[in-house]
Specification:
The complex is a heterodimer of chains A (238) and B (293). Chain A contains 8 helices and 10 strands. Chain A is α/β, with parallel strands linked by helices and 238 residues long. In chain A, α6 links the parallel β7 and β8. In chain A, α4 runs antiparallel to α5 and α5 packs parallel to α6. The longest helix of chain A is centred in the C-terminal third of the chain and has 16 residues. Chain A is globular, with a radius of gyration of 18 Å. Chain A starts with a strand and ends with a helix. With 293 residues, chain B is an all-alpha fold. Chain B contains 15 helices and no strands.
Chain lengths: 238, 293
């Protein structure tokens, strides 16, 4: 179980996220929802220790998550990456094996098999020799999904995996989430899509600087909660 | 037939005749070494979108050189220390304020250059041959310079080989690298040191004003042709070696300043790749588009 307690994280001197507490259970896919600027990415980066946190604690199986980075697969937003980087699809996925391979070593035969399986699972096997800049947005996202699979992690964090992807990629992403869930993995997905895809998550977290609501779709997507979160944004737009 | 044989003899003579001189052999050796060193380091600069960092560091070594000259120690050591400090100033300003990286770079570049010139005046180190420092002289390279560059190149090659996959991960996806617990700060420091070492080593050959060309040019040319990072280093090395050697011959035969001659060859090769690269060339790309509507 992942336990986040009283977490506060700042982004450039302003408090972006405050007093956030929640738990994630193995075998569940959780969506982290909220408008732009709600602090979703900042929260996840704080949990992973990518940016310093002001207060609070993050524990995985009752031990500090910082000491168990091997168990995490993190997929950053696609826009964070320079897709002109000279690298082929299969070598991006092989990056997922870097911890398992260790310093000064070349990837093992087992690592190569894992990479091949991951590429086939996301239907990118035919593209394995392509340079990544030749891919569509959805294909790029699937390469990153394959890299996360190759890590054989227990905890998965996806930052906006559905932004700008095609239907096929969306379907593959949700199917892979389901498979990971079956294997008892813990999955957190950042999204700002409030449409029908919400049915595919086990639990929702609604964030707007602080945690507004958490629970099932019925509990979280209420008129009052949406007004609290999006009403303010609508007002500021008008 | 006989004409072509004559041509071969003339070109052969043009290439071989200068080699009787030790200073030409030194120049050729250092071209090969710098071609490799700068292509490897330059590859990391380009994929991190930090090409201008070479500009900052190459100018910022001036105060270090002045102080080293004043203290009577090896100029390369002073240059190295000043270069690394300048890079950290840039990162510090970027991390602790809203100032963007290009602004931080121009500020640090000019301030270090200014400080260097003040130090030269105050410490009366104006015996320092500034024009040699700024423009370099590949035909003035000594055997000791060749050895120094050989050691630097060997160190950078070995470290690149040892940490290749980690550096690739870090330069491709810094956030992801941090997430899996790679020591990203140490790797960044290592890259800054390698860049500064390459600049210090190139100083003698092309001078601080033109070292950016050696660092970014051949690697950028390769970038237009290849699809993997290690290919960029290998192909970039070949372009770097070719540019250094051809520039050196032009400089010898036609009495051109060596640094600028090398830079012009680098740029000519880059233009060729820009126009004719099989995958990304401007001309080849448009032809492919017109045949494949």
């Amino acid at each position: 179980m992942l336990e986040v307690r009283n977490l506060a994280v700042s982004y450039r001197e302003t408090e972006a996220v405050r007093n956030v507490s929640f738990c994630l259970q193995p075998g569940e896919v959780t969506a982290l929802l909220g408008p732009n600027g709600a602090g979703k990415s900042t929260l996840v980066q704080g949990i992973l220790g990518l940016i310093p946190i002001d207060r609070g604690s993050v524990k995985w199986q009752h031990r500090s998550l910082k000491d168990q980075l091997k168990k995490i697969a993190y997929v950053p937003q696609r826009t964070q990456i320079d897709w002109d980087y000279p690298i082929t699809v299969q070598n991006v996925v092989m990056m997922g094996r870097i911890r398992a391979t260790g310093w000064f070593r070349s990837p093992s035969r087992r690592s190569r098999e894992i990479v091949n399986t991951a590429l086939q699972r996301v239907e990118m096997w035919e593209y394995r020799q392509r340079q990544i800049r030749e891919l569509s947005g959805g294909q790029q996202q699937r390469v990153f999904l394959a890299r996360a699979l190759a890590q054989e992690a227990d905890l998965f964090f996806f930052d906006e995996p559905f932004a700008g992807v095609d239907r096929k990629t969306e379907e593959i992403l949700f199917n892979v989430f389901d498979e990971l869930k079956e294997k008892g993995k813990t999955i957190l997905v950042i999204s700002h899509d409030l449409g029908e895809t919400l049915d595919r998550y086990d639990r929702l977290l609604l964030l707007d600087k602080e945690l507004i609501a958490s629970g099932s779709k019925q509990e979280v997507i209420t008129a009052e909660n949406l007004r609290k979160v999006y009403g303010r944004h609508l007002q500021s737009m008008a | 037939m006989s004409l072509s044989i004559l041509g071969v003899i003339v070109v052969g003579q043009w290439l071989v005749e200068p080699l009787q001189f030790q200073f030409v052999r030194n120049a050729l050796a250092i071209s090969v070494l710098l071609g490799i060193l700068c292509a490897i380091v330059g590859t990391y600069l380009i994929v991190q979108e930090k090409g201008m960092m070479s500009c900052v560091i190459s100018h910022a070594i001036l105060p270090g050189i002045s102080i080293a000259f004043f203290l009577g120690i090896n100029l390369s050591i002073g240059a190295f220390i000043a270069g690394v400090i300048s890079a950290f100033f840039v990162v510090f300003i970027r991390a602790s304020s809203r100032i963007k990286i290009d602004t931080a770079m121009s500020l640090i570049l000019s301030s270090f250059l200014g400080l260097g010139i003040i130090l030269i005046t105050v410490l009366k180190t104006n015996k320092l041959d500034l024009s040699n420092l700024l423009f370099g002289d590949i035909l003035g390279v000594t055997t000791a310079d060749v050895w120094e560059t050989a050691v630097i190149t060997a160190i950078v090659l070995i470290l690149t080989k040892l940490f290749y996959k980690e550096l690739q991960f870090y330069t491709f996806d810094p956030l992801g690298a941090r997430a899996i617990g790679l020591p990203v700060n140490t790797m960044y420091f290592g890259l800054i040191c390698a860049i500064t070492l390459a600049i210090v080593a190139s100083m003698q050959t092309v001078g601080v004003l033109l070292v950016m060309a050696l660092l970014t040019g051949p690697a950028a040319t390769a970038y237009l042709i290849v699809k993997e990072l290690h290919e960029m280093m290998i192909v970039g090395s070949i372009f770097g070696i070719l540019s250094g050697a051809i520039g050196m011959y032009f400089s010898y035969h036609w009495d051109l300043p060596s640094g600028p001659a090398i830079v012009m060859v680098i740029f000519a090769l880059f233009l060729l790749a820009l126009l004719l690269s099989p995958s990304q060339g401007i001309l080849t790309r448009s032809r492919r588009r017109s045949t494949n509507p």
